[in-house]
Amino acid sequence: MNQFFKVKTLEEVLELRREFFALESETIHVKDAYSRVLFRDVAALSDLPGFRRATMDGYALAADATFGASESSPAWLNVQATILMGDVPDFVLEPGMAAKISTGGMLPEGADSVVMVEHTEAVDETSVEIYKSVAPLQNVIDASEDFAQNQVVLPRGRFIRPQEQGLIAGLGFETLEVYQIPKVGIISTGDEIIAINEPPGPGKIRDINSYSLAGFIREAHAIPVSYGIIKDDPAAMKTALEKALEETDMVLISGGSSVGAKDYTLDVLSKIVDTQVLFHGISVSPGKPTILAKSGNKPVWGLPGQVVSAMVVFKIAVVPFLDHIKGLKKQRPRIQVRGRLTRNLSSAQGRRDFVRVLLEEKDGQQQVVPVLGKSGLIRTMIFADGLLEIGEDVEGLEKDTLVDVILL
Amino acid sequence: MNQFFKVKTLEEVLELRREFFALESETIHVKDAYSRVLFRDVAALSDLPGFRRATMDGYALAADATFGASESSPAWLNVQATILMGDVPDFVLEPGMAAKISTGGMLPEGADSVVMVEHTEAVDETSVEIYKSVAPLQNVIDASEDFAQNQVVLPRGRFIRPQEQGLIAGLGFETLEVYQIPKVGIISTGDEIIAINEPPGPGKIRDINSYSLAGFIREAHAIPVSYGIIKDDPAAMKTALEKALEETDMVLISGGSSVGAKDYTLDVLSKIVDTQVLFHGISVSPGKPTILAKSGNKPVWGLPGQVVSAMVVFKIAVVPFLDHIKGLKKQRPRIQVRGRLTRNLSSAQGRRDFVRVLLEEKDGQQQVVPVLGKSGLIRTMIFADGLLEIGEDVEGLEKDTLVDVILL
After folding, report:
1. Closest Cβ–Cβ partner in B46, B193, B200 for A46
2. What are the helix (H) ranges across A123-281?
3. Residues A188, A306: one domain?
4. Is residue A225 part of a domain?
5. Same domain (yes/no): A277, A344
6. Residue A260 is nearest to which of B103, B168, B209, comparing CB atoms?
7. Can you give the residue range of the structural domain that contains A351?
8. CATH number of the domain to which A275 belongs
9. B204 CB near a chain A CB, below 8 Å?
10. What is the CATH number of the domain that holds B169?
């Protein structure tokens, strides 16, 4: 039997991202920007909002006209005009005067603040009493207070959330340059694997990995491309891999990554031009029999055929590489939920374990409950809400320890 | 000026989900199942995996043949056959015999367990020494151990994650019935709002909400449909709303939801057939001027035109309604990150505040840093990683309190 070689820790594996460049860019409409990654800095072409706006319904005025005003001694002002939303005031507010204004309305020249309508009382059509003083710029947003002209508001490499999509539109960009969406090829291998619409027989199992991996690729905002099921035949695998490398930006080969008699992934990789194996074996459980190769600038993964291992490796190792080739710079905060472990967990030293857990609220406390069942059962992933990571240097975790869970 | 009426708390608002039915179903291919919601229970048509499989490379045997085996006193067995992956053993394993097997391979009749190759040594081609005993079913997955025939494995209303997509495929379902994806109409209103490709002038602001709301709708796995910008004109708003109600499953009207002179959303709703307003005003900040109406079975929201308020209300109130009409039953765990507040925060009683915060790791501790700046500034949402909720009964939070943050 062959042996694993170049076994690496998860940290060492993640370091290998540097071996790969990010993808090229493309130009898209801002309405499609959600979940994309900025290829260039976005700067404000002009001030935002661009004029002094009211943030309350009330009266626009010069703050000094209200100084000393109180319930018992209100300030008394003439109402010079009413400004409706969208109006451009064509007058200068005179000293001692106020203009009625709505939230979002534009302040006239001469006004520096807004007094809330709740702190006023209209005496008649043309005059108002003010019961509370305001400071300059109170209840207004100044012309460049959100963003000033020429300021870089979003850096290259930034993930575009809904609020960034709104801001880019608000800055007047109808189109923008973003990194391309990675296409990820999936090749399922194994003589025992049959298509999901084939009648199953003894010794055969349906192709789960093509579908779960496609789901994980979608979840990571990338595009799965399936290359079907290939038998354990190096020539057929080589043909499929070459096609996938031609058409996609990253390839996942499910199965054939271990050291058994029919594990041909390493063999096949050695026959592809301009391709080198970066590691074989990763010191995590489940998921040890994993291969990463570099073919040109494209990562090629040999993933365990075992369904749970394939999922865990995708989540903890493949996703960071996908983010990297997508151009993502600022990592979003890793989504973890903290809770209290409900029982002791043992773990082998020198290996990082990912234990499937479910989250249960009990007496207002988050409980982290390990999912029982053999590691190879897909049911453990179905019942799980997340993965609990146990480090290489830890022999196990005691009941009641506070732990962080990576959500699934 | 009009007044808010039927002001509700967030809990009261969320209770109103019951007023609405979930959408109809459609049949899709399992490859497209990720992020959909199951319309029917999924049951296993047969056992999974369906036969007894090895989870390790080694030798399949009857466990009792290994009892008492140790390094110093190994058990000695004849090797009856070698089973390759995908093979269907056409023999019965005889007592005292073993069959060489790979991970995933099918055990022959007569074998109930697998001894790992690491605990064996091949003596010659036909015999092997076993250094460790195994228990029945050790290192195997039994025929129905993942799921048994006719067992309901996934209930109606379940969100399909990548692992559920894989399982459904593994059970042999090429197609499945899921709830339709909600289409959500967006109508942007306001005389001050201009299209993003129009030259901005004083008093005008570009249409941010159509784009940020579209992003939030995508993030919630629904489909945004934009109906453009409508001036503050009840007749035009009514026409746009009727069209949106015709074509979509939920409508968001951005702007016109407050109590100002040009806030026509309530007026317009009163003129649409079979439509009743469920509330006007929600006791949260930002976001008070919010309206929910029921038109037939469709929720119609009047959202604040103020960009930050619109985003917060979408996230905390609209998303749960979207999940509801999508048919989602088991809520996934709410994604919250716990951290330590870096400064005192005040809050008005009787109102639920959503403070924008950023997350910063410091000395291995998660810090929750409130984002400074006026509530109306979009920059506060851009700099924020999440929202910190401060309840109605709380006057404020002290520095160093442990708090949970809803991720943005």
Report:
1. B200
2. 162-170, 209-219, 234-247, 265-270
3. yes
4. yes
5. no
6. B103
7. 336-407
8. 3.40.980.10
9. yes
10. 3.90.105.10
Total structural domains within chain B: 4
Q: What tokens appear for A133 in the block?
A: 């003083």
Amino acid at A166: G
Q: What is the average pLDDT value for chain A, to the nearest integer?
A: 93
Dump pLDDT digits (tens) for A286-295: 999 999 999 9
Residues 219-248 of A with CB under 8 A from B: 219, 226, 232
**Residue B338 in contact with partner chain A when CB distance is under 8 A:** yes
Tell me which of A30-44, A150-164, B352-366 is least confident.
B352-366
pLDDT at B2 over 70: no
- pTM for the full model? 0.94
Could you tell me whether strands B402-407 and B396-397 are parallel, antiparallel, or unpaired per DSSP bridges? unpaired
* pLDDT at residue B1 tops 60: no
Residue B208 near chain A (CB below 8 Å): yes
User: Which ipTM score applies to this complex?
Assistant: 0.94
Out of B30, B102, B145, whose CB is closest to A262? B102
Q: What is the pLDDT of residues B382-395, one digit of tens each?
A: 999 999 999 988 88
pLDDT of residue B333: 59
Interchain contact, B104 vs A192, CB within 8 Å = yes
* B212/A338 touch (CB, cutoff 8 Å), yes or no: no
> Rounded to the nearest 5 degrees, what angle is found at the Cα of A314, between the Cα atoms of A335 and A361?
35
Whether the CB of A277 is below 8 Å from some CB of chain B: the reply is no
Phi, psi of B340, rounded to the nearest 5 degrees: -100, 130
Q: Angle at Cα B296 formed by Cα B291 and Cα B300, nearest 5°?
A: 25
By the 8 A CB rule, do A117 and B230 touch?
no
Is the residue at A240 inside a domain? yes
Window 151-190 of A, Cβ < 8 Å to B: 153-154, 160-174, 190
**pLDDT of B274-312, one tens digit each?**
999 999 999 999 999 999 999 999 999 999 999 999 999
Type of residue at B142? D
Q: What is the pLDDT of residue A270?
A: 95
Question: At how many degrees (to 10) do helices B162-170 and A209-219 cross?
Answer: 160
What CATH number is given to the structural domain containing B399?
2.40.340.10
Cα of A168 to nearest chain B Cα, Å: 8
Residues A294 and A268 in one domain: yes
